[in-house]
Amino acid sequence: MSAVSPSRSARRSRSSRGPGGSAIFDAPGPRGRITVVWVTVLSILGIVAAGWLAVRQFAINGQLDPGKWAEFAQWPTQRYLLGAFGNTLLAAGGAAAIALPLGLLLALGRLDSRRPLRWAATAVIEFFRAIPLLLLIYIFFVALPQYGLNPDLFWKLVIPIGLCSAATVAEVFRAGVLALPKGQSEAGAVIGLTDSQTFRYVIFPQAVRMVVPSLVAQVVILLKDTTLGYVVSYSELQHSARVLVASTGHLIQTYLVVSVFYVLINIAISGFARWLDQRSRRRGAGRRAVRTEVPVEPVGSMA
């Protein structure tokens, strides 16, 4: 990969942002923070009220009877759902393994100073952002086998999800790079770094820290996209829940249990992202503290 040098318009976009700018939106002011607090409180109250009404309606219709939940206390049902949950995590991990590195390569291509490479990367990104994921899955499931390309069910689901997610991840990385002030690149040039070294040691680490929340949100979306596994009959959690409903008839109970699985994994992903962000902040604070403790020789002192 050659040195990455953003185009002239990209430089203008990056220089127009302040050093504290965000890749997604500006920090809210005092009134904005008050509005966010009120909206959050009202949203929580609305969710609690809706949950209470739902539970009340379930009780009225007998959906909370112990007999309809007894099967979920049995090991065969638990083993079946845990296996499906493992397949969901495996598919999401495989798609992420495709999306993150490919998205980074596409972002580097779109930021490159050479027009052919930049145009090619832009075309790939825009194509996979425009094409519906379900259509791409159907292409891998129906069309490609007719031409001798017939991968396993796992890859018929994982590759389309990874390709579509890579296009979004590329834009997330690019937004993080463009959000940094122009002075970061100039500082690297002043100390004698090449464009490639400046990007590798100065620009990219800061950009990654800025876009971690967006990357986490994309991973959550990617996890939800695995529910399209029913198209290829891949035994992920949602497809397995449909099979379980067909055999037991307990639709509400099954999908509530499946929802708990999705909530738990999303909480785990968010917790990992917070830990990663705090660890990065602590490392950055430690480096700044070390730099401030370095003694400075007085200028112009005479022996």
Entry summary:
By secondary structure, this protein is mainly alpha-helical. 74% of the residues lie in helices and 0% in strands.
Model description:
The protein has ten helices and no strands. By secondary structure, the protein is mainly α. It is globular, with a radius of gyration of 25 Å. The N and C termini lie far apart (50 Å). It is 74% helix and 0% strand. The chain has a single domain, classed as MetI-like (MetI-like fold, Orthogonal Bundle), CATH 1.10.3720.
* CATH architectural name: Orthogonal Bundle
Q: What is the radius of gyration computed over CA atoms, rounded to a whole number of angstroms?
A: 25 Å
What is the residue-mean pLDDT, rounded to a whole number?
82
CATH superfamily: MetI-like
Fraction in beta strands: under 5%
- The chain-level structural class is mainly alpha
Principal-axes shape call:
globular
CATH class identity: Mainly Alpha
Number of helical runs?
10
Examine the coordinates and then state which fold CATH places here, giving the name of the CATH topology.
MetI-like fold
Helix content: over 70%
What order do the helices and strands follow?
HHHHHHHHHH
Q: Ranges with pLDDT <50 over ≥5 residues? A: 7-24, 299-303
**N/C terminus separation:** 50 Å
Q: How many distinct domains?
A: 1
Question: What are the salient characteristics of this protein?
Answer:
MetI-like fold, 10 helices, 303 residues, globular
What's the arrangement of secondary structure elements?
Elements: H1 8-15, H2 30-60, H3 75-111, H4 115-130, H5 133-143, H6 153-179, H7 182-190, H8 195-225, H9 237-248, H10 251-292
Helix pairs in contact: 3-4, 3-6, 3-8, 3-9, 4-6, 5-6, 6-8, 7-8, 8-10, 9-10
